Protein: Nucleoid-associated protein GCM10023315_19380
Amino acid sequence: MFGDMMGMMNKLKEAQKKVEETKKRLDTVLVDETSNDEKLKVTLTANRTFKSIEIDDELLKDKEQLEDYLIITLNKAIEKATSINEAELAAVAKDGMPNIPGMDMFK
Structure:
C-alpha cells in the first residue's frame, strides 16, 4: 500500500517537473497573428507574453481604426497562444497522472 503511495507521489513530482519544463519551453514558442490586410502584426509567446507589434503607418493616421485593429488582432493572437498553451500542458499533465482508481476522468 505505502509502496503504491510512494510511487504515485514520485509520479506526481515528475509530472510537476515536466509541467514546469513545458512552461519554460512555451516561452520560446512564438505565435504570429496578422490582420487580414497585413497592416498590423503581433508576435507573442505561447505563454501569452507579447514580443512585438508592427503597425503600418497608414493605421497611425486613424486612432479609432488602429484601436479596432489592435483589439481584433490581439484577441486572435491570444486565442491561438492559449490554445497551444492548454494543449501542451494538458498533454504533459495527462502523461504524468498516476493510475488512481476513480480518477480516470482525466485520461
User: Anything to note?
Assistant: Residues 46 and 84 are 6 Å apart (CA to CA). The domain at 2-101 is CATH 3.30.1310.10 (Ybab; Chain: A;). The radius of gyration is 20 Å. The chain has one domain: 2-101.
